[in-house]
Amino acid sequence: MNLDRREDRLKEWLQQLPDPWPFPQPERFAAIDGRRCATPPQWKAGNGAWGCYRSHCLILEKCLIEGIDSYVVFEDDAGFVEDFADRLQQYADELPADWGLAYLGGQHLFAGKHPPQRISEHVYRPYNVNRTHAFMVRGRENMKVLYRHLHWNEWQQRHHIDHHLGRLTQRRYQALVQGKNIDKESIAVYTPDRWMVGQLPTKSNICGRKWEQTRFFNDAKNADHSDSPFFAVLGPHRSGTSCVAMVMHHLGVHLGNQLSGYEATGGGEAVGLAQLCESAMRFPAIDPAWPDHQLVQKLKSWIVQRKAEANRDKTVAAGKYPHLCRFVRQLHEALGDSLRIISVNRDIEASIRSLKSRSEKHRGQWFAATDEDCERLQRSLLEHRDAFIASHPEVPVFHIDFSELTTYPEEVINNLIEFLGIEPTAEEIAAAIDHVNPQLRKHG
């Protein structure tokens, strides 16, 4: 699919086709130029997106009218992996017999909450796929369903064709994976485990942006960014976790988009994570009110978004909230091998005294508790954290003694940097060291 005014892109595209090429010789389809035709009044997504939508509709109409039972479409910014032919063959051999739409490239949306379902080694059923630069369509009845869907009046403002196709994909997933009753038509949509077609570093005809290299988005095998670590800062209340979290924040670690906490110098607690934890287990409770599956899903959804943001910013993601000591088993279930633990250790009696002191200063506030509740909660959080660490020796753990941090901040922080696997600037390291205040040890 190529605009008449972009002969340069067609030439570049043909020159980079993989060898061997597993399909018949590509046939150029003259794309609709959104600049040259009027968009309907309800269309708010721009001229380029209108041209893209109409071009895909015309390809589908051509196949229906001419009795063509299958087609593969590539937009002229589609770039290929080196072993494209071999990986395509693996994918095609494993596609279920009912497939109607099979993506070769794209981007998984909402994957944290709705992860792609594994069908075989190289095939997944997606929840929602974004982008239309490379996909295959098969079967006349499937084409009719696709055509009707693309012409229904259910467009949302500023939505492109790929968003519209994403809603079609969701129907099948919701019916087969989530057990919902879907009364509209659906077709079987699949994706490969790893994308084999990305987007070339050319200027987009739709958004106008230009990339530096071929872009491959999150794929099914790693839609939840399982190959990116997540660092959980674990310790009871008043144990030094706020100090450690803020040290990590100064080092460039991504702990969330809006940080809060009790400490005047910053608590390093993401507002969203704090709200999630308190909804699941209201302070000073010691057991969650949510069932495991709900807690696992909520934690994973929040963390996957933070991982994606951290990857974007070329850093690592982390989270801090005392409840995570109680939720560490669910964290592990949500994250698997990507979980990393930073265990902050402080004398439990000192932490209990500090929490009691905080509660005494703020009687009537939601974060204040009786002396009995303070002691029960602190010991419960510590026991759950330490029991998990002892029973899961395969999970990487970095232990920080709070008294050592306040006495030898530079040494401890350098060791922490090595565990995090990051390369902060000299200014970031200096800011992290400066954040540590020896007076924090006033409760022992």
From TrEMBL:
<dbReference type="Pfam" id="PF13469">
    <property type="entry name" value="Sulfotransfer_3"/>
</dbReference>
<protein>
    <submittedName>
        <fullName>Glycosyl transferase family 25</fullName>
    </submittedName>
</protein>
<dbReference type="InterPro" id="IPR027417">
    <property type="entry name" value="P-loop_NTPase"/>
</dbReference>
<dbReference type="GO" id="GO:0016740">
    <property type="term" value="F:transferase activity"/>
</dbReference>
<dbReference type="InterPro" id="IPR002654">
    <property type="entry name" value="Glyco_trans_25"/>
</dbReference>
<feature type="domain" description="Glycosyl transferase family 25">
    <location>
        <begin position="47"/>
        <end position="107"/>
    </location>
</feature>
<keyword id="KW-0808">Transferase</keyword>
<dbReference type="Pfam" id="PF01755">
    <property type="entry name" value="Glyco_transf_25"/>
</dbReference>
